[in-house]
Amino acid sequence: MKRRVFLYHILPVGIYVCLLLLFLLSLSVSKRQPQILFISPEEIRSGDLMVISGQNFGMTRSKSKVWLNKSPLSSSAVEFWSDSTIKIRIPPLSGSGLIYVETSGGRSRGTLYILSERLPDRSTGAFIPGKPYLSRINNSRFKPGELVILSGDKLGQRQKNSTILVNLSGKAPESVLDSPDESQYFTVPAENFSNWTDSSISFYLPEEARSGPVYVRTQAGYSNSVEIEVEPSGYIEKRSRRVLNISQSVKIDRVGALPGNSLVLWVPSPSPRPGQNVLKTESSLDPLRLDHNLQVYQLTELASGHEYSLDLNYKLSLSQLEYIIDKEDVPDHYDNLEMMEPFLRDEKDIFATYFKRTSMAVYKREKNPYAKASLLYDYVLWKMHPDSGNPEIDHTKWLTSRKTDSFGYASFFTSLCRGAGIPARIVSGVWISADIADVVTHYWSEIYLPGSGWFPVDTAAADGALSAYLAEEADPPGSWGSLDNGYLAFSRGLQRGFVFTEESKRIDFRSYSQQNIFEEWIGNLESCSIQWGNIAVIEE
User: Fold this and answer.
1) Distance between CA 407 and CA 388 in Å, rounded?
2) Residues 352, 280 contacting (CB under 8 angstroms)
């Protein structure tokens, strides 16, 4: 009986009394004047997360407000609210001031916050809710290959389709609502990234970067920009600049297909590098996407007997380069081997393991990368002879036949360097004569020197491979650390396109670009003829 009385009479009354007391307590708290005990951090920048600690803020925000000087914060800037803690995202501010919390119980006393200047200064800086935001950078001056650490918010948990854009020749938009012109920026390659979290990104600065704005691009859009200054990597861009109009074409005919087919083309475009700048790009079709330096086009439902074409035009400038680097300024070790690892191993047309013993026999006990590469350069010029008519393409016979074409020269030197622990890659493109009468598919190498970045080496040209296109007794257009204004690069290293389906027919071949795929035939595309036209040049 007593148990029933307790359950049906005393317990409900007790619960009611407790709820009433809690209500009265919350009502009394809400009527108390809020008090800020401290804020963290006290020195802030736009976009920073500030934590306000105190009491009597109320359990929920409701109609309460946070004031920065005379301006109330928008609801989107308030990320957390409890009776003792408030977390806010700092909007763009013009200076230091006082912060207040205002509730139904009144207004707190003001607490001083200090607006510290960002280093480096941002060219834009407005915080836009939902967009990635950059709040700090670990330095203001960088050399190619040095680690850049960006801190911020909403940068994404993983890289996926997000990336970093570094400046080539562009300026930050005047309005934060405007997007940067990506044709004036360089997309940091995937292999350059060291770490990516929602609040921090670290990457090795690519050699293509120039002083200017840096952006993060995620699926949510573009971040604000931060400004960096890039120290020169030891090259001199001479005044012999020429402006060219370049055209590419792909023709498709003799199509035999049934419904449910498509053709994907991976078209190389001029690769950003020192001395080579793309000024304008035009295409007869809209690309589906951009895989690094490969423009991806997809033609769907090709009809039998029909003809199709893709035409691209570029306006670009080429300048002569001379690299002036002192061996004593090149460290013996690499601080960014994580980024360089892909340029040290065997891959298609590079045989580092096979030539490692040969390489070691040449450089002996030398430890300096610059000096080792110089010895290997002299060895290739002594050992090989250019022969474009009947070149030896089997790398196992190079040391005995002692003849090959420019691709063999680049492959041999690159393999020797990788075998010596020097990051190296093959550069593919064309060399254009001064009178533009000759456009020659050509290959050379780049080695990575610590503290200086990528350094060009053309063993084939230095050994006379292009002499047939030069005046008698003319200097070679390229050699150790030197390229004239006829070099146009389409790939710097092997470019890898991401295929659409494993069941497709994929085609690659050697051309003025080194890449793992040029064409992908999907579905009921039974046959077709595809002609990749040569590069055509008109000097402006």
Assistant:
1) 10
2) no
Q: Where in the sequence of the chain do the CATH 3.10.620.30 domains occur?
A: 325-484
Specify the amino acid at residue 44.
I
- 285 by Cβ neighbours in 10 Å (0-12 / 13-18 / 19+) ranks as middle
Selection from 223, 231, 283, 186 nearest residue 492 by Cα: 186
Token couple for 166: 């570094």
Residues of the chain with CATH 2.60.40.10: 35-115, 133-231
Taking the C-alpha atoms of 12, 13, 16 and 22 in order, what is their torsion angle to the nearest 10 degrees?
Answer: -120
**CATH 2.60.40.10 is the classification of domain 35-115:** yes
Q: What is the pLDDT of residues 136-157, one digit of tens each?
A: 888 888 888 788 888 888 888 7
CB-based contacts of 252, cutoff 8 Å, min separation 6: 263, 299, 302, 307, 308, 309, 528, 529, 530
How far apart CA 481 and CA 327 sit, in angstroms, is 13
In the predicted model, what is the mean pLDDT of residues 306-317?
94
CATH match for 325-484 among 3.10.620.30, 3.90.650.10, 3.30.420.10, 3.40.50.2000: 3.10.620.30
- Which stretches within 342-485 are classed as H helix? 356-363, 369-383, 398-401, 406-419, 459-462
Task: Give start and end residues of each alpha helix (H) in 261-368.
Answer: 337-340, 356-363
User: How many other CB atoms are there within 10 angstroms of residue 505's CB atom?
Assistant: 10
Residue 508 · residue 406 · CB < 8 Å: no
The CATH fold of domain 242-319+495-539: Immunoglobulin-like (2.60.40)
Q: Is 197 helix (H, G, I), strand (E, B) or coil?
A: coil
In the block, tokens 């895989």 appear at: 291
DSSP E strands in 21-156: the ranges are: 35-40, 43-44, 49-55, 65-68, 71-72, 78-81, 85-89, 97-103, 106-107, 111-115, 133-137, 141-142, 147-153
Q: Are strands 403-404 and 385-386 parallel, antiparallel or unpaired?
A: parallel
| Model pLDDT for residues 206-253, shown as the tens digit of each residue | 877 888 889 999 888 888 888 888 876 666 766 678 999 999 999 999
Predicted local confidence at residue 173, as pLDDT:
61
Q: For the segment 184-197, what is each residue's pLDDT rounded down to a tens digit?
A: 788 888 778 888 88
- The domain made up of 133-231 is a member of CATH 2.60.40.10: yes
